[in-house]
Structure formats: structure tokens, C-alpha cells
Amino acid sequence: MSRSLDIPVAECFEPLLAPMRYKGAWGGRGSGKSHTFADLLVDNCVARPGLRAICIREVQKSLKDSVKFLLESKINEHEVGHLFKIRKDDIVTPGGGLIVFIGLQDHTAESLKSFEGFDVAYVEEAQSITARSLELMRPTVRKPGSELWFSWNPRHASDPVDMLFRGPNPPPDSVVINANYDSNPFFTAELEAERAHDEIAQPDRYGHIWLGHHEPMAIGAIWDRLTLHQGRVTAEQMPELERIVVGVDPPTTANPGSDEAGIIVVGLGVNGRGYVLEDFSTRGTPEKWAGRAVAAYDHADADVIVIETNQGGLMCELTLRTIRRELPIIMVHTKIGKHLRAEPVAALYKLGRVSHFGAFPELEDQMVMMTAAGWEGPEHVSPDRVDALVYALTELFPKLIRKKSGPVDTFDEAWEYGRNTTTGY
Ligand SMILES: Nc1ncnc2c1ncn2[C@@H]1O[C@H](COP(=O)(O)OP(=O)(O)OP(=O)(O)O)[C@@H](O)[C@H]1O
Ligand SMILES: [Mg+2]
Predict the structure, then answer these.
(1) What tens digit of pLDDT does each residue of 255-299 get?
(2) Is the C-beta atom of 206 inside 6 A of ligand 1?
């Protein structure tokens, strides 16, 4: 790799300056990964006339998703605009080279063949790259002296890019560095304010967002993020729903600063699969959560509200009925722990029977902190969203969760013991 412009590079990125087949930089938000690779690419183009590079993402719906705009601003910043020609879809580099921008999901091994003579492949947001994409691209960039660059914010240890570079057998010809905001000399005051706020406001996610840690997940969690991510569906993939249920886990005290009320809407598709549709969870007075639960019921055109009534069952029902007298309510009273109730539902996810319609970050954060031994999340937080989810899905999948014959296990026993249905008056 050669350089010709005198572009300053933060110290932690210096190992990336020497030639190497694989170059990786991982870390948290604002560590300068994107800017540094963009600087290096512009510098390389000037130093090596005719250089050809592909800038890769897993999904590139439009050029707005790509690093094209960043490269353009770097070309201007380094006052080399006269050497480049910026076109609508690509950038012509000095000496007749080219920089192109692609999403690997739009490609096959065949279509990638046209990139065999390229010198650099730069993969941005490489945590999203699938194993298939990685397998496709690695042999594509095969010109002698060619390099593959990756920058990513780690998500899971099981993500293909993490396994490749941070697993037990990284490629021998690779250099991988870790960068964080505190090693970025260009870190801005605006980003610092964001960081400081996150440190206080969401301590459980701070390490992931800003320090490059994997997404928090308890050891032995009964749900895992990969299953949740893989199960996601979009509007086009939604079937017709034959039953819609609102699950409610009311807070145990009326103090507005106390627990949240978990309010989760789920539906059963005509295809027999469960779908998590909305998360309406809220903090506040009984009037507030009950109002939201009824609003969720109306909004989703639901069939029934399922509510946990271990504490103050009658009060909960009354609060709901004050808002709407004739409301179909199923009251659930259980004697077993939250995690025991959650396990059969987690098993449905593992079987691929439940999908999330979009993403529910707060709910999903709670799900991956639930283990077979109990809740492993922050002590001051109660997993109300998971509880609401579990009540609602259990209502949709009664047969799967309660055994038809054989000895009654603790879960079934407790569940049947406490089950009490009142539908309207
Ligand atoms: N070489 C540089 N020249 C000028 N500004 C820089 C440079 N490197 C980083 N910065 C500043 O630091 C900020 C964060 O850098 P960058 O966007 O490259 O981080 P990142 O590691 O890619 O983070 P993210 O995870 O948010 O994508 C930029 O918005 C920019 O303001
Ligand atoms: Mg970036």
C-alpha cells in the first residue's frame, strides 16, 4: 500500500498502513473507522494511478447507503478533486481507475467475477455480512497484492466477520485493530455529548454502542439475538391474522416511578405462526397503563386482553373495566417463576414458530437477559415486557405449551391452577 498525501491517521490505525491482504478495524461508535478507511482509499488512489476498488455492504438499497458521499467529501477535503471524476454511480480515479459501490445481496459468484481485477475491496458495517457473502467475496478479490478491508461495530461473536477475524483461526495474512472513541483525535463535541448521555441513560447498552462490546446477552439466555434477527418479517411477509391478543403485565405498585407495565400485541397467522406486532409498554399510573392497554386492543383490533393478576387481580380488572366495561379479559394467575413460564415460549422461537414484525429493541434486550435460572438483567429492572409477551403468546399457542397427556409438569399444574377466564359481563 502506498501513500502520497500527507493525511494524518490516528495512532491506533497505523498498523493498517503497511501492505496486508486482510485489514480489519472494529470498535464502538465514533472511533474514526469509516473516516480512516475513506482517507486511506483516497490516498491510495492518488499514489497508485489506475487503482480499482469496490466498496461493499451487505445490503445497498441506494447509493445513499454507501460510502460514496464520504469519499467525495474526502476528495474535496484533501484538494484532489481535479484528479478524480465523480459520476452518478461511481468515481473515476486518477489514471483511469474506478471506485464502485455494491450490495452483496444483489450479487452471485458469477456476477462478482467482473471484480476479479480489482485492487481493494472495502466492506463497511461488516457486522451485517452473511457467511454466504463473505464466502463469495473472498476469492473474488484475487489480483496479486490486492487487499480486503473491513470495518465493523461488533454485534455477536457468531457474526461471520467476528468469527473470521476474532475467532480462533484468523487468516495468517491479516492485521486487525480495535478502535474506540477515545482513540479518535477528531472525536467531536456533539458525539461526546451523545456518549456521556448514553453512559448514564442506558448503562446496559453503553459497552456495546461505544466500546465495541458484543451486544449484551446473558450466558445461558433462553432467547438469542440471532434467532430474533433471523425471524424478523416485513409487511410483505405478514400473513392474514386469525387471532390477536394483547398481553399485559401490570406494575406491582401504582407509584409512577415504579415498574413498567409490559403491553405487547401478538397475532396468530393463518399459517399457524405467531407474530409480535407492537410494544405499547409504558410507565405510569393504573389509569395510564390501562388506557394504553385498551388503546392497543382497539388499535390492533384485538380479540382479547390477557393480564397477569398475581398482585391485585381484581384491582387490575376493575381498572381496565373502568375504561371499557365490556372488554374481553383473560386473567392469568401463576405460581411459578417468570423464567419457567418463558421457557416453552422461547422453545417456540427456536422452532421458528414466532417472528417479530420489525424490531423491538427494549423487548429484545429483556428477552436475551432471561436465562433458565432466572432474570439476569439489571436488578432495578423487572422484565415486564417479556412477561407480557409470554402471557400473550401462551394464549395463542395453548396446545403446544400444555401437554395433552402424561404426567402434569409443574408448569402445566401451576398454569391450570391459576387460569381463570372472565369474558365480558
Ligand atoms: N480523519 C478524520 N478527519 C476528520 N474527522 C474525523 C476523522 N476521523 C473521524 N472524524 C470525526 O469523528 C467522527 C466519527 O468517525 P467515524 O464516523 O469514522 O467513526 P466510526 O468508527 O465509523 O463510527 P460509527 O460506528 O458511528 O460508524 C466523524 O463523524 C468525524 O466527525
Ligand atoms: Mg462508520
Answers:
(1) 555 678 999 999 999 999 999 999 999 988 899 999 999 999 999
(2) no
